[in-house]
Amino acid sequence: MEMAKKKAIYLDYAATTPVDPQVLEAMIPYLSEKFGNPSSLHREGQDARGGVEKAREVIAKAIGADSREMIFTAGGTEADNLAVIGAALGNRKKGNHLLTSAIEHSAVLAACRSLQSQGFEVDQIPVDGSGVVNPEDLVRRLRKETILVSVMHANNEIGTIQPIKEISGVLREREILFHVDAVQSFPHLPIDVRELGVDLASFSSHKLYGPKGAGALYARQGVKIVPLLHGGEQEGSLRAGTENVPALVGFGKAVEVLMKRREEDTLRTRELRDELLEGILSAIDHCGLNGDRMRRLPNNLNLFFDFVEGESLVIHLDLEGVSCSTGSACASGSVEPSHVMLAMGKTPIQARSSVRFTLGRGTTMEEVKAVLEILPRIIVRLRSASATGRLA
Ligand code: PLP
C-alpha cells in the first residue's frame, strides 16, 4: 500500500485560524513601545488608547454600528455571556422568560442554564432535519414574559445559516430583545446589524485571522445590560479590567483585512469546498452531508460516514497529516454525541459518525486533492475494522 506524504493539511478553520501576518505586524508595537495602560493620561497611555479606539471604529463600521455600541471582551464566549446574562438581569423587571435555539454554542446554552438557577425560564426552539430554525416555531413559544431571544447566525458545527431577519421582524413588533451569535458568520458573510434588526451580537477575533482572547459585543444604544465583571470603568463600565491592547489592535486589523478580501475568499473557499464534497460523495458510499446544502457557510462541510466513528476518523486523518474535527472544539474530546446533531433528529450513533471539515485562506486545490486520496482509504480501513466492532 502506498503511504501518503505526511503533509500538514489544516481543515479546522472553524475551530480557529492562524494570525494573519499583517495582524501580527500591527500588534507588535503594542507589545513593546506602545505598552501603556489606555486609562492613563500620559503619552504611553494615550498611544494605547488610540490603538483600542481605532480597532473599535473599524469593527463598528464593518457591522454598520456606532463605535459607542461596541463592548470589547476577551472573546466570543464572554460576549455571549454578557449578552444573555447581562440583558436578562438588566431587563428582569419586564419578565423572566428567554428563548434560544437548540443548536446554540455552549457559551449561550450554559449562560441560559446559569440563569435558570436564578429563577429565569428558558425554552428551546427546535431545528428541522436540515439544522434550520423555523420562525413559526419561535412565535409559538413566545410569552408575554419573554424578554430575550438568542439565535445564532451560523452554526459552528454544521454551518447552517438561520433566518435572522425574519426572526428580528417578529421580535421588533413585540419589543423583545434579540441576541445573535455572529462568531462563525462574520468571517464569511456581510453583516449589518441595523439591516438584520438585532439588538445584541457577538463576535470573536480568532475565527477571522486575529489573535485569541479578543472579542466584542454589539449592544444597540438604549439596550439595558448589566456587567458580568465589576471593577474599573473600562468599556463604559460594562467590562471592567485593563484592556488587552495588543489583542484588540490585532482584532481591529483582522477585521480591516477581512473587509478587503472576504468576498473573494468566500468565492474561492466555496469552490474548493464543493470540489471536496463532490469528490467525497463520488468516492465513498454510505456517507452524506449533515445540514442544509445551500443555507450554509461557504467553508463548512459536515459529513456522516456510516459504520465509522468520527473520533477514530479524526485521529486517523491526523496521522496522515489532515486536521479536522468532530464538530465544535468544545464538543470534541467529550463522549457525548453533539447536541446539534441530536437536535436535527440524528441518532447518537449517526451523530458520532460525523466529521467537520472547515476550509480557509490557506486551503488549496492541491490539499483538497490530497484529502480525496487519503480519506477513502481510511474509511475502507475503519469500516473493515468496525465490521467486527461496536458500530457495525
Ligand atoms: N460562538 C460560536 C458560534 C463559536 O463557534 C465559538 C467558538 O468556537 C464561540 C461562540 C466562542 O468564542 P471564543 O472561542 O472566542 O470564546
Short description:
It contains 13 helices and twelve strands. It has 392 residues and is an alpha/beta fold.
Descriptive report:
With 392 residues, the protein is α/β, with parallel strands linked by helices. It is 41% helix and 13% strand. It has 13 helices and twelve strands. The strands form three sheets. A seven-stranded mixed β-sheet has the order 2-8-7-6-5-3-4, sandwiched between helices. A three-stranded antiparallel β-sheet has the order 9-10-12. Helix 1 (21-27) packs antiparallel against helix 9 (245-283), helix 9 packs across helix 13 (365-386) and helix 10 packs across helix 13 (365-386). The two termini are 25 Å apart. The mean pLDDT is 95. The structure holds pyridoxal-5'-phosphate. Residues 75-77, 80, 105, 107, 152, 156, 181, 183-184, 204, 206, 215, 328-329 line the site of pyridoxal-5'-phosphate. Pyridoxal-5'-phosphate binds at residues 75-77, 80, 105, 107, 152, 156, 181, 183-184, 204, 206, 215, 328-329.
